[in-house]
Specification:
The radius of gyration is 21 Å and the shape is elongated. By secondary structure, it is α/β, with parallel strands linked by helices. The chain has two domains: about 120 residues, D-Maltodextrin-Binding Protein, domain 2, CATH 3.40.190; about 100 residues, Periplasmic binding protein-like II (D-Maltodextrin-Binding Protein, domain 2, 3-Layer(aba) Sandwich). The strands form two sheets. Strands 2-1-3-10-4-11 form a six-stranded mixed sheet. The protein contains eleven helices and eleven strands.
Length: about 260
């Protein structure tokens, strides 16, 4: 009987805590954001500044936009979705899972080819450039080309220059762009394709070249509140990310600020 009574108390406490957490979210005391992995660092700084101003706890889940969109579709509790491309935002819009009328194109980025600091082979991005030869027996790290935005942009750029077919067998596909970056930084891949902001944040790589914007679709980060969210702080945080203080953080990280332009 004692054990049964103790179990009942534990269940009751857990229920109270769960209800309390849900109530805090509805009151706007906490906020859950699903964001593309390439925003790690800059969005953390912006969220920290917002927390200091408002007292609202901002929990951020970073991953590939594709993975996060699928989690939203599966019913994962999130208040805001911030994607690294328009496709995955459109995917959720079409399913009615984010608020279509509140989608904002927040940021822009550039795509770069990176290598280890000691990578010394001459390599210039251009039509039929010898990327496969430069890799030798090594691999090129990039996001999964079929789903991860950075990987899709990378494949598109390599197709534009006519080198994708020779490079495809040498691709080391990563779950997200930051994972691809780390493969190069750790010396596990001699070259990688990542965002300019990722390369800027990692001292263990250097930029070999910047892919011209005409070689791939524009890199745009859209943001929107999740349709199922009733969080009172979601709109306030969205407004903050559109404001001057957040803008300064994103620009310092190397992003182009698009909101309001």
């Amino acid at each position: 009987m004692l054990r049964r009574g103790l179990f009942s108390v534990v269940v009751a406490v857990m229920t109270v805590l769960a209800c309390s957490g849900s109530a805090m979210a509805q009151e706007g005391k906490s906020l859950t954001v699903f964001a593309a992995a390439s925003l790690k660092g800059s969005l953390d700084k912006a969220a920290s500044l917002y927390e200091g101003k408002t007292g609202v706890d901002v929990a951020i889940s970073f991953a590939a936009s594709s993975a996060l969109a699928k989690q939203v579709e599966a019913g994962a509790p999130a208040d805001i979705f911030l994607s690294a491309d328009l496709k995955w935002m459109t995917y959720l819009v079409d399913k009615g899972l984010v608020k279509k009328e509140q989608v904002v194109k927040l940021l822009g980025n550039r795509l770069v080819l990176v290598g280890a600091p000691d990578f010394s082979k001459p390599l210039t991005i251009g039509q039929d450039f010898p990327l496969a030869e430069a890799l030798g027996d090594g691999r090129i790290a990039m996001g999964e080309p079929k789903s991860v935005p950075a990987g899709k942009y990378g494949r598109e750029a390599l197709e534009h220059y006519g080198v994708w077919k020779t490079v495809e067998p040498k691709v080391a596909a990563a779950d997200n762009v930051r994972a691809a970056l780390q493969l190069v930084a750790r010396g596990e891949a001699p070259l990688g394709i990542v965002y300019q902001t990722d390369a800027k944040a990692e001292a263990g790589v250097r930029v070999i070249g910047v892919f011209p914007e005409e070689s791939h679709a524009p890199i745009i980060y859209p943001i929107a509140p999740v349709a199922a969210s009733t969080n009172a702080s979601a709109q306030d945080f969205l407004a903050f990310l559109n404001g001057a203080e957040a803008q300064a953080i994103f620009k310092q990280a190397g992003f182009t600020f698009l909101a309001g332009s």
